[in-house]
């Protein structure tokens, strides 16, 4: 048997707690709120077939050839339009880089900026895979406190003063993963001003921003950035297809160049076919209408979640009320270990993701993340009934 002498970046056996949770939740007899998948019934399969046909008919050789590591020019042009229309971000072509999903930005940003032991600031709690990507390059994560309006600028300022060495801040201001919370405009402006004042970098991750089913749109932090301190990250995963693996960022041209060098060694460039399919899809379809259908469906599902939680959850259990996106965040008073609660829930044939792994350092007890985007109405009703029962047992214990 060969011996694989793994690098320090590879997690030790048995440390993939979330993988174990998702595997346990995959049992078909379990109703799982643990996933994070878009509703597949809204994937525009037929329309995308037509877009693919046009891509091959009109650009076949380019589709099949190596391309610019920064992406297809027509795709970058489309992104400059999207970020202006949706987020009021002024971008030129030199600011844009297409990527293999937005996940790749997290990985390559960490590779570009983090040496072992470097400090990275994150909202507490934050996106799990970002935590894993930053840690795999040896980052020392420092959490910035949040409240029901997301990241708290005054706390950020204190943290930045205490950690002037920090390489960057990572933040998800809209329909955050895991909490579903959204930062108001004033806070976004303050974050951009602090980034300029203290000259720190901000990675603003916005995979869910277009999926709003309630309330008013809030422009990106990047729209307030006058000094190129903010890197804005987007993706087509939640509005078109996560299987396409198509993301992008908008940043200072110098950073785009450095990043592109790393991107070349990672994959020589993002898949041309998905970029051309996306360009053609936008030409041939009313994408805003398509996104509205997604938002309407998720809005209906979130409403069912709120009705079910009200009906079945014991007194004292609280939850966020997201105005968009795919997740909500539940707080169970008196429960110290939600991983233990997870075991109780598995016996009731219902699953969620425990809150602990979403924290940078010391986890706050008693939180769990629930997904509703890929849950049918009968699963929501029955799943919350089971979860309510398990929560009652856990609180009583
Ligand atoms: N950032 C956040 C906050 C996410 O939730 C996700 C997907 N779960 C991603 C980035 C990565 O998405 P993708 O690579 O599909 O663009």
UniProtKB/TrEMBL annotation:
Aminotransferase class I/classII large domain mapped to chain residues: 48-387
Family indicated by similarity: Belongs to the class-I pyridoxal-phosphate-dependent aminotransferase family.
One record GO biological process: alpha-amino acid metabolic process
Protein name per Swiss-Prot or TrEMBL: Transcriptional regulator
GO molecular function, one term: transaminase activity
SUPFAM superfamilies (alphabetical): PLP-dependent transferases
Claim: Metal-binding is one of the keywords in the record: no
Keyword terms of this UniProt record: Aminotransferase, Pyridoxal phosphate, Transferase
PANTHER family named in the record: AMINOTRANSFERASE, KYNURENINE_ALPHA-AMINOADIPATE AMINOTRANSFERASE, MITOCHONDRIAL
Cofactor(s) this protein requires: pyridoxal 5'-phosphate
Pfam family, one: Aminotran_1_2
Species in which this protein is naturally found: Limosilactobacillus gastricus DSM 16045
């Amino acid at each position: 048997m060969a011996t694989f002498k793994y690098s320090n970046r590879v997690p030790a056996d048995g440390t993939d707690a979330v993988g174990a949770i998702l595997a346990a939740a995959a049992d078909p007899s379990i109703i799982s709120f643990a996933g994070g998948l878009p509703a597949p019934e809204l994937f525009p399969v037929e329309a995308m077939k037509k877009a693919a046909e046009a891509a091959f008919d009109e650009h076949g050789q380019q589709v099949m050839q190596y391309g610019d590591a920064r992406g297809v020019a027509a795709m970058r042009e489309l992104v400059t339009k999207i970020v202006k229309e949706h987020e009021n971000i002024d971008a030129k072509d030199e600011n844009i880089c297409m990527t293999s999903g937005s996940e790749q930005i997290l990985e390559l940003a960490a590779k570009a900026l983090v040496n072992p032991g470097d400090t990275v600031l994150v909202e507490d709690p934050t996106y799990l895979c970002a935590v894993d990507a930053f840690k795999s390059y040896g980052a020392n994560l420092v959490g910035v406190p949040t409240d029901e309006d997301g990241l708290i600028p005054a706390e950020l300022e204190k943290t930045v003063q205490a950690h002037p060495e920090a390489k960057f801040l990572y933040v998800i201001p809209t329909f955050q993963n895991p909490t579903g919370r959204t930062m108001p405009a004033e806070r976004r402006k303050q974050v951009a001003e602090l980034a300029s004042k203290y000259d720190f970098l901000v990675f603003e991750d916005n995979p869910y921003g277009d999926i709003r089913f309630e309330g008013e749109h809030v422009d990106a932090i990047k729209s307030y950035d006058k000094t190129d301190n903010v890197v804005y990250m987007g993706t087509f995963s939640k509005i078109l297809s996560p299987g396409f693996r198509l993301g992008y960022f908008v940043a200072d041209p110098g950073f785009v160049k450095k990043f592109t060098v790393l991107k070349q060694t990672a994959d020589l460039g993002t898949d041309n076919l998905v970029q051309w399919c996306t360009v053609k899809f936008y030409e041939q379809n009313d994408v805003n209408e398509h996104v509205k259908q997604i938002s309407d469906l998720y809005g209906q599902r979130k409403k069912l979640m709120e009705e079910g939680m009200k009906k079945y959850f014991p007194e004292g259990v609280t939850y966020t009320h997201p105005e968009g996106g795919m997740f909500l965040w539940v707080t169970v008073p008196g429960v110290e270990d939600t991983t233990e609660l997870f075991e109780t829930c598995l016996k009731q044939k219902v699953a969620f993701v425990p809150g602990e792994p979403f924290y940078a350092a010391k986890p706050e007890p008693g939180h769990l993340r629930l997904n509703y985007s890929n849950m049918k109405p009968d699963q929501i009703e029955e799943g919350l009934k089971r979860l309510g029962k398990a929560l009652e047992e856990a609180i009583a214990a």
